[in-house]
Specification:
Blueprint: E1 15-16, E2 33-36, H1 44-52, E3 57-60, H2 64-69, E4 81-83, H3 94-101, H4 106-120, H5 124-139, E5 144-147, H6 154-166, H7 170-178, H8 180-183, H9 186-201, H10 207-214, H11 218-232, H12 235-241, H13 247-257
Parallel strand pairs: 2-5, 3-4, 3-5
Antiparallel strand pairs: 1-2
């Protein structure tokens, strides 16, 4: 098993996204940056494992309706700050609309995911959550954990922006992003997910469409990062203009997280 992956019983995609070399010749400290899927099904043993991380901040990137449907479980004595957004447009989650209305083919799945990533960094709730996350990194030396539902898309974009800020090379950034495909056994899970989709929609999804929807691909992340650059000129400009990460905040984050 990849040493970055932390085996949990019922919390998916738990891993350390620190411990990478940076362009400044330094290295992100291990054990300070964690990411995962939701925690609603965490077992008592999972909660003990989570407590051992010593978290100071948990960032829940999910919509309010997602949190109500799958409320997070917390370990005893949990005292970390929880960053979440009350912003909700009142509509159905885009991925549910897609699953109910689109042709469930591999191509349509990839088009949907690509378009989703192009919008991720600009949605009001994400701007709020990303801004508060980076503020927490600048102010608190304790470990942080970020998660959404599956821990791959919203979480993947925020982890990639963090890597960019810290000076992680693009290849390492993408390699970390793609670890979702290792942490979540796509081929094994696809048949069960296809049955769930058919039950929900009454339509049959192709195996390729399910794998594309469950996993991640470099093109998805690249589409999201390119959309940011097109809108702001650079990722650094986006971090400063939209998320308030100025030079002073960047320096504090680098110092707090680097060895």
């Amino acid at each position: 098993m990849n040493p970055r992956l932390h085996p949990f019983d019922a919390v998916e995609n738990v891993r350390d996204y620190g411990d990478y070399a940076t362009a400044a010749g330094r290295r992100i400290r291990p054990g300070v940056l964690f990411r995962s899927g939701h925690h609603a099904k965490a077992t008592p043993a999972d909660l003990d494992r989570m407590a051992a991380f010593g978290l100071g901040t948990v960032v829940d990137l999910r919509r309010p309706s997602e949190r109500v449907r799958q409320p997070s479980r917390r370990p005893g004595g949990f005292a970390a700050q929880v960053i979440e957004s009350d912003h909700d447009d009142g509509g159905e989650a885009p991925h549910l609309t897609f699953l109910k209305t689109a042709d469930l083919t591999e191509d349509s799945g990839r088009r949907f995911m690509t378009q989703t990533y192009r919008q991720l960094a600009f949605e009001p709730s994400h701007l709020d959550l990303f801004r508060r996350y980076f503020a927490a990194l600048a102010e608190d030396e304790r470990p942080v954990l970020i998660h959404c539902a599956a821990g791959k898309d919203r979480t993947g974009m925020l982890a990639a922006l963090t890597h960019h800020l810290l000076g992680v090379g693009h290849d390492d950034m993408v390699e970390d992003y793609l670890l979702t495909n290792v942490a979540v056994d796509l081929e094994a899970r696809a048949p069960d997910m296809a049955r769930q989709l058919e039950k929900m929609t009454g339509r049959t999804a192709s195996h390729g469409a399910v794998v594309a929807f469950l996993g991640v691909e470099p093109a998805f992340l690249d589409a999201g990062l390119k959309a940011i650059v097109q809108a702001h000129g650079s990722l650094d400009a986006y971090l400063e203009q939209s998320l308030g990460v100025d030079a002073a905040a960047r320096d504090r984050i680098v110092e707090r997280l680097s060895a």
